[in-house]
Amino acid sequence: MTPTAKQATATMKQQSDLGVLGLAVMGRNLALNVESHDFQVSVYNRTYSTTDEFIAANDGKRLVPTRTLDELVQSLASPRKILLMVKAGAAVDAVIEQLIPLLERGDIVIDGGNSHYTDTERRDAYLTSKGLRFIGAGISGGEEGARKGPSIMPGGPTSTWEVMQPIFESIAAKAEGEPCVSHIGPGGAGHYVKMIHNGIEYGDMQLICEAYNLFKAAGFTSDEMAATFKRWNEGDLQSYLIQITGIALEQKDPQTGAPMVEIILDKAGQKGTGRWTLINAAENAVVISTINAAVEARVLSALKEQRVAASRELQGPKANITVAKPELVAKVHDALYASKIVSYAQGMALLMTMSEKKDWQLDLGQIAAIWRGGCIIRARFLNRITDAYRSNPALANLMLDPFFKGVLNKAQQNWREVVAMAVSSGIAVPAFSASLGYYDSYRAERLPANLLQAQRDFFGAHTYERVDKPPGERFHTQWPEVIG
Ligand code: NBP
């Protein structure tokens, strides 16, 4: 036995503070994170060899391997706390069914996977009916976050959150000294907020890709682009995604020496959380056009073979970006920053709508605060969102906050020029232009919806309101008959 192992064994408790069920990438790293904060962790994986390997690789740590679920449950201090880190979907239900007969009243099951919030609500009601307690916790940050400090979005009853709080707060990332975790709300609120986080992540990534695409069309080398993103990471665009983009762009393919990103096939994958966000936004009539554009951009990218064929059939202009490079960088910076603000404004509007609908009482400022560290969208600018909602919790739209309004007003001219430049060069910028379209629609005193209402009244007698009469009064016109 190594000295560390001896020392650890000496401090082993009879029963563990937490059980982690599922030892794939996330589970094993979270178990190590919890253990490193002075907790004893029991671990279980359906395939025992994984548990065995994990324990062998982490000799001396306060980890207790368990071979069966019964052993796992028996190894835990009461009330038992079991963190499920299994594949989202049927596996979560299967594991819950197996655990129920083994657990006692008041024990806590935490689902830390990427579950759909409606599944979480269903499981919450089910476990509560069995006298058990349930937390649906969104956990963001991937492998590294899980090990070193993720952003955690737990939903469930306040009393259950309070039991979990010491563990969650110690393992979460810290941003300016504050743990990136707080109680989000009841039921499925935590997993819902994680879903919106992922939707926003899709938007952020696509906006960065559009900036890259414009730079490429303007003849930037990948090293020039890397330097640009690195510089941006020092300023108001500072974020994890900008940082990793700068690093990725300077990597060279060891086989060819070419920039690594140019060797990677332009076909994006997705796991579905972006699509869930779109469906939910549509169900609640909230516009999230930037995230929508981002999800659709991934879908279109996947049609690689069709795109290659169409590139020979469908005509467009030759890219012709003549703006000097430093000027282009400044303009694209503004387009990216403004589009990002719009994307967050849309995401926050969706959070606010669902909060009201479900009476979750989400604290939008606090949600932005716990996204500042650990998670994929971590960024300096989230502090500004926190400030915006702290000074006005009823803010109708983030774009109207004095700080963001100032940025948008300053950036809007460059933003337009970038979108115009892209359109006239035949370069698709779906997220930049969707964001600008939202901005221009939202700030339009009068939209062409008057004509739309005329059309609806024409073919369906749907009636309309008049500009010169009180709201709510409905009118109908006998429109001329259409022949043929
Ligand atoms: P996976 O999502 O790849 O799931 C693999 C784990 O699930 C293994 O431990 C596997 O056991 C277990 N499992 C399955 Br599959 N079916 C099971 C069943 N019927 N009963 C018991 N165990 C079962 O793991 P992951 O990538 O670590 O992700 C875990 C969760 O965290 C997911 O919901 C994921 O979406 C979410 N998440 C992942 C990331 C990431 O970066 N990977 C980031 C954020 C959130 P086995 O070894 O016996 O097959």
Q: Please state the second-level CATH architecture of the largest domain.
A: Orthogonal Bundle
Percent range for β-strand residues: 5-15%
The number of E-state strands comes to: 9
Give the end-to-end Cα distance, rounded to a whole number of Å: 91 Å
CATH topology heading of the largest domain: N-(1-d-carboxylethyl)-l-norvaline Dehydrogenase, domain 2
Shape category: globular
Note the run of SSEs as H and E. HEHEHEHEHEHEHEHEEHHHHHHHHHHHHH
Tell me, rounded to a whole number, the average pLDDT: 96
> How do the strands of the widest beta sheet line up side by side?
3-2-1-4-5-6-7
Poorly predicted ranges: 1-8
Please tally the helical runs, counting DSSP H or I stretches of 4 or more residues.
21
What would a concise description of this structure say?
This protein is α/β, with parallel strands linked by helices. The chain has helices spanning 3-10, 25-35, 48-57, 69-74, 90-99, 117-129, 142-148, 158-171, 189-217, 222-232, 240-250, 260-263, 273-283, 289-301, 304-310, 325-358, 364-370, 382-391, 402-425, 430-442, 449-460, and strands at residues 18-21, 41-44, 63-65, 81-84, 108-111, 133-140, 151-155, 174-175, 178-179.
